[in-house]
Amino acid sequence: GAVVSQHPSWVICKSGTSVKIECRSLDFQATTMFWYRQFPKQSLMLMATSNEGSKATYEQGVEKDKFLINHASLTLSTLTVTSAHPEDSSFYICSARDSPEATGELFFGEGSRLTVL
Amino acid sequence: LAKTTQPISMDSYEGQEVNITCSHNNIATNDYITWYQQFPSQGPRFIIQGYKTKVTNEVASLFIPADRKSSTLSLPRVSLSDTAVYYCLVGVLNSGNTPLVFGKGTRLSVIA
Prior knowledge:
The complex is a heterodimer.
Chain A: E1 4-7, E2 10-13, E3 19-25, E4 32-38, E5 44-51, E6 57-58, E7 67-73, E8 76-81, E9 90-97, E10 106-108, E11 112-116
Parallel strand pairs in A: 2-11
Antiparallel strand pairs in A: 1-3, 3-8, 4-5, 4-9, 5-6, 7-8, 9-10, 9-11
Chain B: E1 9-13, E2 18-23, E3 31-38, E4 45-50, E5 53-56, E6 61-64, E7 70-75, E8 84-92, E9 106-111
Parallel strand pairs in B: 1-9
Antiparallel strand pairs in B: 2-7, 3-4, 3-8, 5-6, 6-7, 8-9
């Protein structure tokens, strides 16, 4: 099946610094990618929809200035956590479909675990 | 998007068949049903998808009654490696830009 890859798989940073997480579709083009966040023992929470060549659409309660999303190409979307704080520590997961049809399988990356000290 | 309700957790012994039922009472005509599996510290993995009646693949079966207000994921002869969280999701059929919204999922524990 199609592959979605994230980098880094884990990162530790100091409070106040910014961290960038990359999401790549390795063998297909994705005009749309989705970013999720998952806290321990909880479900995935949709953060935003990343659209190639245009602004991302954020879910209610997600600060767009805090979580910067850039989808500059059909195979790459990046999530930057700006001025990270300990409460931003979480598991961040991206996903994309390998076809424009909604019945196309939604592939998920391996996830990126962020720990803010 | 249709809301889903699943049992929070289930336990099963190895070798047994496990059936996880998901309620989605307000499913729309153009919604389809998808199940994902997630292991700790990994992204979810697609298991099976269906619209109505029965779908079977090499991993599982999905049973959907005529009214489509529920669905049942059936895992035959589970093993310890099937211990994971299973999510039932309902999504729009004709919009590739629509994300899938995750409910709380069912935490399956397989016991030796």
